[in-house]
Amino acid sequence: MHILKIRAENFRNYRYLQLEPHPRLNIITGLNAQGKTNLLEAIFFNLCGYSFRTKNLRDIINWQSEYCCVISELKKEGRQWKQSLALNKKGKKKILINSVERTNKDLNHSGVIIFTPDDLTLIKNSPAERRRFLDLEVGPFYPAYKQAIQQYNKVLFHRNHLLKNIKANKNKDNTLLEIWDQQLIIHGTNVLLGRLAVLKKLAPLAVKWYNLMTGGQEDLEIRYLSSLQINPTADDKSIKAYFQKMLNELHYEEIKKCQTLVGPHRDDIIFFINDKEARKFGSQGQQRTLVLSLKLAQLSLWEHEYQSHPILLLDDVLFELDSKRQEFLLSKINQGIQTFVTTNQLYNRDYLGNDYKLLEINSGKVSVTQ
Ligand SMILES: Nc1ncnc2c1ncn2[C@@H]1O[C@H](COP(=O)(O)OP(=O)(O)OP(=O)(O)O)[C@@H](O)[C@H]1O
Ligand SMILES: [Mg+2]
Fold first, then answer.
1. Among 256, 280, 304, which residue terminates a domain?
2. Ligand 1 pocket, 22 CB below 6 A?
3. Which CATH number characterizes residue 231's domain?
4. Mind listing the pLDDT tens digit for each residue in 31-54?
5. Lowest CB count within 10 Å: 153, 264, 341, 351, which one?
């Protein structure tokens, strides 16, 4: 997919923005706080209908304005269409595709992959970040997996509530807990199998990207760590049996803590670089390369599932890599992926060639300098 044109009004510090991006590489440069990340956010908002920076979407409206909008002309395999997203101060969003009103669901397949410095939390932070990546960033490729997660979360919520009631002696009947146990086992097993299947596709791709980016000097290994302590080849029946056994053993403890202590909401994904855990021992550059490999794996999955290239947004991450890794990434981009990269340290551009657009941002105004 390509953005042919993009226009924004009152988006963050852009009162008015109009741009015809390069079909491949767009380098967005400028001093701090000029609007580089805001431009990526405007693109992301137009394609996905939400922001990667804030949960409170109204933050994206310019402080002096009552509304904002981003309008793009997009192209995918010969098909061309216009996509308009507007938001007002009350938080009401309006989505128009070729002037016909649509909903968020219609944006589900707008392919965009983003990598910002915040994504390093994927390695550094708690297991919840890694589960979120798998469930929310990769999960949507597979509708059954996405559905299993939604159902599991609902069951988990109700079961924890019941555990609280049992502890407070409001509910003495154990049959209710047994009913929720069964629901937890059914949906939990679906989530677990979904994750393992997704990881089976994603992990070899990430390993391949990591290996290529490090010129074969470093090896990556990805392991799924299940709180059920099952092995990755376990089948539906054995997972369910083991889940049941563990719940039986943990009932007393769970009531005491008012928490479900076992299940996919307690699992983790561990990354090893040259046999050492990346979270504990990886350098900044290794961790950045690792996240980038995961994002590129996501990109490859996208290309495989939808037979088209997604758009790639890289916020302050390309020029922070060493020159070998940069060149490798740029050669990948050369294969037809429209990319937007931001940086404020573009010192050497010789190796970039001439075929790209350089966008200089100054207080919410864009000038094209190449
Ligand atoms: N709703 C808004 N209305 C107007 N200005 C805003 C709004 N939200 C953020 N800004 C301003 O936009 C400016 C630019 O932000 P942005 O994050 O895009 O900078 P940047 O160029 O990416 O900087 P850096 O190099 O530090 O990452 C900030 O100074 C911020 O105060
Ligand atoms: Mg920025």
1. 280
2. no
3. 1.20.1050.90
4. 999 999 999 999 999 999 999 999
5. 351
